[in-house]
Sequence to fold (1165 residues):
Amino acid sequence: MDSIYSQYAWLIPLFPLVAFLIITAFGRSLRATSIMVALTGSLIALMLSILVLFEQMGSGEEFSERFTWMTIGNVQLSMGIEVTHLTSLMLVVVTLVSFLVNLYSMGYMKDDERISVFYGYIALFTFSMLGLVLSENLLTMYVFWELVGVCSFLLVGFWYTKPEARAAAKKAFIVTRIGDVGLLIAILLLFWYMPDHALDFASIKNVFDGQTGTIAEGITTLIAILIFVGAVGKSGQFPLHVWLPDAMEGPTPISALIHAATMVAAGVFLVARTYDIFEASQAAMNTVAYVGAFTAIFAATIGIAQNDIKRILAYSTVSQLGYMMMALGLGSLTGGIFHLFTHAFFKALLFLGAGSIIHAVHTQNIQEMGGLGSKMKITAWTFGIGALALSGIPPFSGFWSKDAILSTALDHNPLLFVVGLVAAFFTALYMARLFFLVFTGESRSKAHAHESPAVMTVPLIVLAVLAVLAGFVELPWSGLGFLGGWLLPGEEVVHHGSELVMVISTAVGALGIYLGWLIYVKGTISRDVVSSRVPGLVKLLERKYYMDELYHAVIVVPLRGIGQALQAVDDYIIDGVVRLTGAAAVWTGRAGIRMQNGQVQTYGLITAIGLIVLIVVIVGRRFW
Amino acid sequence: MLADLPVLSLITFSPLLGILVLLFLPKQRSRLLKVTAIAATLLPLILTFWLYANYHPEVGGAEFKELSTWVEVPVNKETLAPGVTSYMLEFQYHMGVDGLSLPLVLLTALVSLMAALASVHIKKRWKSFYIWFLLLEVGMLGVFLARDLMLFFVFFELTLIATFFLIGIWGYFNREKAANKFLIYNGLGSALMLMAFVMLIATAGLTYVQTDNTASLIYSGNYENLLSNLTNPEALVNVLPEMLGGNNPFYLTDGVKWAVFILLLIAFGIKLPIFPFHTWMLKVHTEAPPAIVMIHSGVLLKMGAYGLLRFGIFLFPEQAREWAVVLAVLGVINIIYGALLAMVQKEFKLVLAYSSISHMGIVLLGIASFNEIGLQGAVFQLVSHGLISALLFLIVGSLYERTGTTEIPELGGLARSMPFMSGILLVAGMASLGLPGLSGFIGEFLSLLGLFDTMKWLTVIATIGVILTAVYVLRAVLAITYGAMPERFITFKDARLIEAVPMIALLAFIVLLGVYPSVLTDTLQHSFDVLINQLNARVGG
Fold:
């Protein structure tokens, strides 16, 4: 079957773009209209994406197209789009979550006076993210990569009058930019090392796939690691994760869309897209695996000690992205993408649920909530499904994708398998803590909580359904896995169907939840059992291992110091020399002025002195 | 119709028409004076658009050339070589356009119009302001179109004088000091430039003209002639020493070439500005009226880079290439030094001044790459930075009108009372920090891409600038527009139409270049093809 819809895939990002342009041009005065425009744009994009996905799931051919962006000398830089199986899957994830968030925001942002600006930004983000997903080459991807970053910046700082929002927006932009520079250098390297300066993914695949030796191994490793640096920045991996929790200053629907489901997964997507480079270098693969694994456990431990509902979820996102990276680093492209896919739904669900809660109780501190389960039934049920999916309890989607990763880990690297298990345990624990503190027990909130309106609960229900079902696209038993074979056509797919791993991971998840129940519901174990014995540890976790403080002391302060020192150099030395030169000229001039002050006496004196000198010289020479 | 006329001269001198009208207008009719001046800046813009539309990149604009003798001086007849009847020194009126100058002419015409619109904030002596303003435009256009060294020099000096008065009379509190520093520092640069030009004319500026019964040797600053003399080993100047039996003191040795190249590097380096010759421009940025800073930062600085390319690089590619590392190091210093200083400024105008230093460093990087990608990146960066800094100072002007200050600590939260202007400021800042989709990215990316081929480590160091730029731009822009707003700003009105139009126009060009860079790179292509081919032919690619 030929591709019918895939060749029109370029239209998909165009609808949100048009929506953005319309809203920016006319939106400020027309609130309702801009919402409708944004909603329509994202709906059309969603429907087209679904058509493309179905076509690709059938026998539709992959499709790519490009045009020359610039011709310089004999080199051409191109922009292009490409529809592959992976791309079409991402298209649906992005447009679906985007549409649901659009819908949800109608309720959540209802009273905000800048709601049309908000919708404009979301449309711009959706456009950029779709562009990123569809990119046919690295340059195109870099362009959209930066654009999604700027949208994230704009939306984090949406409530711009709050100093925290301003600081968070700035931090998000700058920290991710550090990663972006890595990606940029990787592109420069690829450009000069690839045959014909090609940057498109197809050529990259060809060059690195068989490891034909066109590009030396050292360079390959370097390129892969630099690309990964970009991914580390965007996907909040250690040590560039610090921006993501702060980014929670943005409106909650944004956290769901950008900082959980789509943009932060772009790093994972990038690695997947350039996977052949990584596969050509074991060193790079190890880097990815270990950084991912470390991030997974590192962030999960922080998540236990936080009290802000959104920050807990943010650290959970960091941790889960680490999981995905670990999967990629261990050689399981399917595992990484599978987890990206399921995570997008259950994490978006959790964030939107959190938004629903915040909407009701006007606080983000879980210590000030409690007992909301009876007042917000839909929110509680859907949130519970999301939490179970995240904790890896069967049959929810997170279980299947986590299982795929853990089985790969067991096969390749037992150490990372253990790390993954421990992280899974902490994940279950902090989710249990969060869930029980918020929904069970006595109410500690002053607000009269009530269920959110339908525009907010419907997206929750849709996402909850997906959080249950999304895992079934890839079951660990032979013959039941669809995703792996589809993502990697032509490659042999190994199914690790290890019942042992399933049992262990379920047990670990259940243990975490049980422990949480014991502490936060039953009270069998005191809440400060740890903090009373090792207060330093709790403090360390609460302060997030002092990473922010470290960066402040090691980077921010010295940089500012250098700036101020250079300011002194500029003012006193460089400009000082300039002023001195000028002054010297003036002094010379002054001396000259004194010689010609118009007084005959002076002239007479000078003449006399000159005469005497002359006589002395002439006479003196005679007697010499 | 236009094709038969001397278009380049028309473009250059069309603002004079405005001056002529202004002279007959009463000096207190500010509105009338403003409208006239704005209309006068429209003329060269329209003509330049026509030029752009009729310019064929493959040919390189040769059909627009204008050449005639301006002044002819006979020189020392006593030492005639055998067979030569006269020696002449000739100043020519020679105008030409190619891929390098066309974008800059367009930039000049565009920024001038926008600056004329921004001059609505000028409060006194409108008539003389606009006369100087239009003279300045003539000078700038002339600089980019002149193809004779002396003619170039005259236009170049015209811009100095006009700018001097514009700063000294209409500037802020310390305007006279700033104007003096500007004039003296730049005058010094001009002196070095003149020295270089004279040396060049006296050595490489020779042509042999033979008619039926006369044979003259003519010294001139004809650019094409210089170019062919310097690049063609068979050219007269290169074989003449033997012909004259070693008598010619003006022999074009390698030493002379190096001396001229270094003189040019310093002369135009001051203008660019290259560290450590940058301190003069700080005062200009803070003291000159914003409309003039738009021109200063948008166009005048570009004259430095243009001069360096046109005379330093194109005429002495071998010397320049040998010094490529020096240029690249200077570029990196500019980038990092400018960015670090921009990070600690309290005055927004100084942030922008240091940011200009940083961004001009990128131009040096592109030049130092000596491949087409980098060189095109350098010119792209010139045009892009011209547009972006013009836009930024346009906003500064409008901001100052309302707040009475541009000190960052005194500002804040302006997005609330002025959402439109704050939005434009944010986008301009994004363009400045090289966001893809806006013009700044292309220049930066191409320059880095070009340099990476030859100097990997320097390029990597330069990319630190990419991060630092984000830091200082966001620091300044967010401090001004985000956060809580002081009470006294609550009544401020957003941009008026006359302010909004130039902002949107500049932004439109910034977006156009960012989204579809071919409009510019295709124009540049030919000129750099020629240069690179020449270079490769002589020193080997």
